[in-house]
Amino acid sequence: LYRFIRPLWFYNKHRFYISEIKEENTNVNSLYISGRNINQFKREAGQFMILRFLAKHYWYEAHPFSLSASPEDNILRVTIKNIGDFTSKIKFLKPNTKLLIDGPHGTFTKAKAKRNKIALLAGGIGITPIRSLLGSFDKSKDIILLYGNRTIKDLVFKNEIENIAKKN
Fold first, then answer.
1. How far apart are CA 167 and CA 158, in angstroms?
2. Contact, 144 vs 118, CB < 8 A?
3. Rounded to an integer, what distance in angstroms lies between the CA atom of residue 103 and that of residue 41?
4. How far apart are CA 92 and CA 86, in angstroms?
5. Distance between terminal CA atoms of the chain?
């Protein structure tokens, strides 16, 4: 019951919907999620959510996706790579599609960083929770990010990460 009642309660409170779909590269799309009082939706950088899109051919499946923007960015965003049957359909969703959110879940958060020196390692689309973490650390942290991809065109958030590095 908890898995059904909690997402319905959140939906009733926030009325989640897709406000924008942005193509990051040929295989990756970011979904920007809006709703009522979205800033009151408590989440931490590094967490994930289980999303159920309320649209034909989508509603019967729920899938976990990591947050790809930190709460400090004042946006709710997930970034999804086309790697299977379900994720290949994400690009066909339309803005204003409603969705249920179960979560956020997970403990991969900045609270786990007990020291000032931090090494982060990401491969491919695994950058999404790390991207959200990068935006939430303060300037006192000495962070090294190692981010690998098969090709340069597969990089996601290159400009965002460079801007965070310059700022900090």
1. 14
2. yes
3. 10
4. 11
5. 44
pLDDT at 18: 97
State both tokens at 151.
């090709």
CA 113 to chain centre: 20
DSSP letters for 75-112: -EEEEEE--STTGGGGGG--TT-BEEEEEEE---SGGG
Q: Which residues pair with 63 in a beta bridge?
A: 51
Cα–Cα distances in angstroms (integers) from residue 71 to residues 38, 110, 125, 142, in the given order: 10, 12, 20, 21
Give 17-24's long-range contacts (Cβ < 8 A, gap of 24+): 17/95, 17/96, 17/97, 17/98, 17/99, 18/53, 18/93, 18/94, 18/95, 18/96, 18/97, 18/99, 19/95, 19/96, 20/95, 21/90, 21/91, 21/93, 21/94, 21/95, 23/91, 24/79, 24/156, 24/157
Buried b (16+ CB within 10 A) or exposed e, 76-110: bbbbbbeeeeebeebeebeeebebbbbbbebebbb
Residue 5 predicted with pLDDT over 90: no
pLDDT of residue 134: 92
pTM for the model stands at: 0.91
